[in-house]
Amino acid sequence: MATPLSDSSLSPLKTIAVVGLGTMGTGITEVLAKAGREVIGIDISEAQAAKCVAALEARTAHCVERGRLTEQERADTLARVRTATDLAAAADADLVIEVAPESYEIKHRIFRELDGVVRPETILATGTNALSVTRLAADSARPERVLGLHFFNPAPAMKLVEVVSSVLTAPGAVASVTDLAIELGKEPVAVGDRPGFVADGLLFGYLNQAAAMYEARYASREDIDAAMRLGCGLPMGPLALLDLIGIDTARTVLEAMYAESHDRLHAPAPILKQLSEAGLTGRKSGRGFYTYEAPGSATVVPDALTPAAGDTGAAGRPVSSVGVAGSGTMASGIAEVFAKAGYDVVLAARSAEKAQAAKARIGKSLSRSVDKGRLTAEAAAQILDRITPAGSYDAFAEVDLAVEAIAEDLEVKRQLFATLDKVCKPGAVLATTTSSLPVVACARATSRPQDVIGMHFFNPAPAMKLVEVVRTVLTADDVHATVREVCTKIKKHAVDCGDRAGFIVNALLFPYLNNAIKMVQEHYASLDDIDAAMKLGGGYPMGPFELLDVVGLDVSLAIEKVLHREFRDPGLAPAPLLEHLVAAGCLGRKTGRGFREYARR
């Protein structure tokens, strides 16, 4: 329960004006009032001010119903809020938080008028996420009292607050606002003044690339969104998130970022301009990348781009037996997935000992499932019995599908595919699990490139639901249909994409990780603040540096080099800090040190 604080426990910022009572301003007003602040809500529109009060009444009533507030606390909270249509109402405020539209002209006008209204010691905060705090401060009569206070939407629920200092901001103002954020139950992150700050600075580059990927018809909107939800554990896919944020808002933020950085990754994808100018701004208009039941609705309805249910096109080839090549974690995980789905599996490695060790690893995995009550001992034994270890790929002679999961080395993979071409029967589907190498290069190592396809599983394969199905220009339709059908039988979500570096997930994930490294390299923010910002502000299950250390810095560097080599974009060049850490042998958790240090086991 948000318990109001007594007056004696409040920071000096007791009376706070909120200028702009849209969705964000209303949310901030609610947070402040619940935490015991006197709030003056100011909006030039009387109707908008009334709408804000009505929203507060409804939200606090809901809190009472849920047991989060008592009736008395609700009455006290509402009594602490008054509204006005004139900035003169901010005269007694200790802090003014401006959340007007993202326009320098509008914000400058507000700050100039506030200069003539508020006391000399009053702090002026802008809620911008796209415009320069320094530029706004420089135009103020008291630039040392101006800073950024960036809440995230919805403000009552989101924990992150970015406290933005310009070179002109007084440390005392930053300290006061930081203390306030803590008292509000938020987690403040201190950042410098650059468009997007930390969370949006990383988030919007990723969203922009997803929009460009869709615009290039590389993958469908549904597959792009599913790939990032299932492959990265994100709460929403990027295109659905753009619709939620507002495509016009995203375009404004990206234009501000590009004006500052001149990084092509921030240059708004043309589709964002086209949709914005057509009025297709996302949920609020009822249509953006998706179509919604009504303006403001979260319910997606079918439209002309919605895939037809059960439309699989060509019929697939029959698959009853599967060969898995490799002896590492990925190979054993894939073999376990197929065996659980009822397939007979041949698990082949370079030696019988390696194959036996891989099967033993699967046995341990199944035993853990039995211990957790997910499998019976009998079922686990049956699954393990379906797996036949082999020390030679000759054992793949009769398999219907051969899945390669060996080292991420193109020449090694090409040699394996040449071998599979000789030992596998005609009509067998040959799949590579590569995450970064060209599938077509594996296909060309065979005499039957039409039978070769990418089938990119994610680690750990038994737990991760996503498989990227990668067609080359040579892949036959029935081979593609076969793999889609197999994915359904093994209970994986298949997404289709073309044969280019990074496919969907890595092509969107690793530039984001690289940009996070650049922020640290440029001393813009700390590892901890960036990780906190992305978990609290973006809903990411792990911060970028936590994830880099888990993936392995050497693996990350290799993927970033592949992306840079393929797309030739200077913004994709691996951050020198990453290269230096890899050169020093600091590869993440597996070596005990990466971006952070880990206790040796």
UniProtKB/TrEMBL annotation:
Pathway: Lipid metabolism; butanoate metabolism. Keywords: Oxidoreductase. It comes from the Bacteria. Residues 196-292, 502-598 form the 3-hydroxyacyl-CoA dehydrogenase C-terminal domain. Signal peptide: none annotated. Residues 15-193, 322-499 form the 3-hydroxyacyl-CoA dehydrogenase NAD binding domain. Belongs to the 3-hydroxyacyl-CoA dehydrogenase family. NCBIfam families: PRK07819.1. This is 3-hydroxybutyryl-CoA dehydrogenase. It comes from Streptomyces incarnatus. The lineage of its organism: Bacteria, Bacillati, Actinomycetota, Actinomycetes, Kitasatosporales.
